[in-house]
Specification:
This protein is α/β, with parallel strands linked by helices. The chain folds into 3 domains: about 5-275, 2-enoyl-CoA Hydratase, Chain A, domain 1, CATH 3.90.226.10; about 310-485, 3-Layer(aba) Sandwich (Rossmann fold); about 495-635 and about 665-695, N-(1-d-carboxylethyl)-l-norvaline Dehydrogenase, domain 2. The mean pLDDT is about 95.
Length: about 700
């Protein structure tokens, strides 16, 4: 047995402090050893007559962030998963049935198995720290809470909120958790240990009694109706792509209709089933890839980032305002510029709305919002930019315009300041030609909406200094984003690959496929939206400009078309002017616009293209271009391709990313499928040499 995780200290008053501190790890997680120690410690507490009450605490700033996902590697059969769940049920039942009250003192993350441990305690106190969150996020890994979460949460808080919490994996903030009844008190972090001890002492001395008004459960008839309603909603939202939500609902219903023991049995059985699904494998893969990407700075460990306190933002449109808001939200001082005060004023208003959305519904929201909003100042000149530690450019996607602002701002920037471009497609090396210091020039490609999208694509050139890369990575980390660091090229990784996906959709449209058939097929396999509607949403004018830039990398390999050029020439920009491939009315998207077919080769005459063919072409176009990016050293690793594909440009999460998909399908099978498409459609589906070599060498991506 390695170093102990749990330690127990008791005092003369009968109060014991049980501390959970996983050695050598920044975060507490549930491990096999921890589960065994929890089991043994429950017996110790039960036998020790001197112990009258217990306070369970985590390490500083972290209660218990959930189970160690690595434990699932031991699960080879459904029975293994079932036994793992039942073992945890047994341990937590011991705590629940202790005659001595156990108080969970929660500071920091209390998630998954951590919340299941806390719910088995008799009293819960959480701190009001912004880092304290409670939730059951297992559904995001394609799993269900296997430690009793589907049974205890619906009995602690109102059923509607409980089901929503488990099905979505959403977090509960401390004040909300208190209001719902998930925790009994919300206290300042510095007071947690003191108050938890006071409550334990009062309980030990019989001066306090735990009284909790549990929410009423619906009658059997009402429960059956709610179950059917929820089942219909789950089936509609999951689209048959994610089995976990329906399995979770079945566990909740079983427990509420037949009792907790039946519910625990159902939970364990369905947990064992889910652990082995291909969807769970894909989502767990992304979890590990995301964790690894967040830890990879792309430079040597001894490289130190520049200290960043003040950030300049050039451009106050949708992207510029979003960048300004997310930076101010994390405490950076932001100076935002545009061509005139009217434009930058609109940008400031947009940034304010983003911050309002983040903070105004939270406790002390007005104060927290105002504190961040006040960090943003605006200008229509370059005043103040001499103080910026980094300048992030987010002006229109035009090379000459970007060159102009680069020269202008560098004239006032300090010598050590960094310039970062948010361009979505223009090579950073090309932009840096206007710079006097290309070694301090880098790409930071954000995605819209900035405050919601988790990815930032950092683009290095051959001249970019390691310190500059480290600084860009540090900013991503500080803003809670997942970075992928790629090498320079036309469209980098994300824009190049999504353009190939859109292009394949347009080529199918030009062959006679219906707009709705193409988009619906894409959604059916897990893409959030299809390639045609993506163009409308991004803006057809923007799609056309980016397409012109990317034609450089596709020329001679991917068939060209002029559909987007023609439709833009007709004055259509997509959703923003309610004219595109789809019809719109008062901001609402209606059905496909039949007149859009007039810009295709076959006109309005359409064919029945099978969903199977559409899906195969879209998925393999995405995967093939991703493999080319790896072969050409745009991507540093398959990991970054999977993270960027899912978090940035919508590759189906249930497929685990383009490289995990190829890995799971089999590289040989992928090369065979691409070769068949190549015979029919030409060089755009030619398998990269990388994949052919992998087949010869019997290699895989993971």
């Amino acid at each position: 047995m390695s170093e102990k995780i749990l330690t127990l200290e008791k005092d003369k008053h009968g109060v014991a402090i049980l501390t959970y501190d996983l050695p050598g790890r920044p975060m507490n997680v549930l491990t096999d050893q921890a589960t065994q120690e929890l089991n043994e410690m429950a017996d110790v507490i039960a036998r020790d007559k001197e112990i009258k009450a217990v306070v369970l605490m985590g390490k500083p700033g972290n209660f218990l962030a959930g189970a160690d996902i690595g434990m699932l590697q031991h699960v080879k059969t459904e029975e293994d998963g079932y036994q793992m769940s039942r073992a945890m049920h047994k341990v937590l039942k011991k705590y629940e049935e202790l005659s001595k009250p156990v108080i969970a003192a929660i500071n920091g993350p209390c998630l998954g198995g951590g919340l299941e441990v806390a719910m088995a305690c008799h009293y819960r106190i959480a701190t009001t720290s912004p880092k304290t969150v409670l939730g059951l996020p297992e559904v995001k890994l394609g799993l269900l809470p296997g430690g009793g979460g589907t049974q205890r949460l619906p009995r602690l808080i109102p059923l509607e909120q409980a089901i929503d919490g488990i099905l979505t994996g959403k977090n509960f903030m401390p004040e909300q958790a208190k209001k719902l009844g998930l925790v009994d008190e919300a206290v300042p972090p510095e007071k947690l240990k003191e108050i938890a001890y006071q409550r334990a002492l009062a309980l030990a001395q019989g001066k306090m009694e735990i009284k909790r008004k549990l929410p009423p459960l619906p009658s059997p008839k009402m429960l059956a109706g709610l179950y059917e309603q929820a089942k219909g909603m789950v089936q509609k939202q999951a689209k048959g792509l994610y089995p976990a939500p329906l399995e979770i609902l079945e566990c909740v219903y079983k427990g509420l209709s037949e009792g907790p023991e039946a519910g625990y049995e159902e939970e364990a059985r369905r947990f064992g089933k889910l652990v082995l699904t291909k969807e769970a494998a894909a989502l767990i893969h992304i979890f590990f890839m995301d964790t690894a990407a967040k830890a990879d700075r792309g430079v040597a460990k001894n490289v130190k980032p520049h200290p960043i306190k003040k950030i300049g933002v050039l451009g106050s449109g949708l992207m510029g305002a979003g960048i300004a808001a997310t930076k101010a939200d994390k405490g950076y001082v932001v100076r935002m510029k545009d061509v005139n005060m009217d434009a930058v004023g609109k940008g400031l208003k947009a940034a304010g709305k983003v911050l309002e959305g983040i903070w105004m519904k939270r406790p002390r929201g007005e104060y927290e919002y105002r504190r961040r909003y006040d960090l943003i100042s605006v200008t229509d000149t370059y005043t103040g930019f001499k103080n910026a530690d980094i300048v992030i450019e987010a002006v229109f996607e035009d090379l000459n315009l970007k060159h102009k602002v680069i020269r202008e701002v560098e004239a006032v920037m300090s010598e050590n300041a960094i310039f970062a471009s948010n361009t979505s497609a223009i090579p950073i090396t090309r932009l840096a030609k206007a710079s006097k210091r290309p070694q301090q020039f880098i790409g930071m490609h954000y995605f819209s909406p900035v405050h919601r999208m988790p990815l930032i694509e950092i683009i290095n050139t051959k001249d970019t200094l390691p310190e500059v890369t480290a600084t860009a990575w540090e900013i991503c980390k500080a803003c809670g984003k997942t970075p992928i660091i790629v090498n320079d090229g036309v469209g980098f990784f994300t824009s190049r690959v999504i353009s190939r996906y859109i292009n394949e959709g347009m080529l199918m449209l030009n062959e006679g496929a219906r707009i709705e058939d193409i988009d619906n097929a894409a959604v059916s396999v897990g893409f959030p939206v299809g390639p045609i509607i993506v163009s409308d949403e991004v803006g057809l004018d923007v799609s056309y400009k980016v397409g012109v830039i990317l034609s450089e990398v596709f020329e001679g390999r991917v068939d060209s078309h002029d559909i987007v050029k023609k439709i833009v020439g007709d004055g259509r920009s997509g959703r923003k002017n309610e004219k595109g491939f789809y019809e719109y009315r008062n901001g609402k998207k209606l059905g496909p616009d039949p007149s859009a077919y007039d810009f295709t080769a076959p006109g309005r005459e359409r064919i029945d293209m099978s969903r199977k063919e559409i899906v195969e072409r879209l998925v393999l176009a995405f995967c093939n271009e991703s493999a080319l990016c790896l072969e050409e050293n745009i991507l540093r690793s398959p990991r970054d391709g999977d993270v960027g594909g899912i978090y940035g440009i919508g590759f189906p999460a249930n497929l685990g990313g383009p490289f995990f998909y190829m890995h799971s399908r089999g590289i040989k099978a992928v090369v065979g499928a691409l070769s068949k498409l190549e015979e029919k459609f030409g060089s755009r589906f030619s398998p990269p040499q990388l994949l052919k070599d992998m087949v010869k060498g019997g290699k895989t991506f993971f």
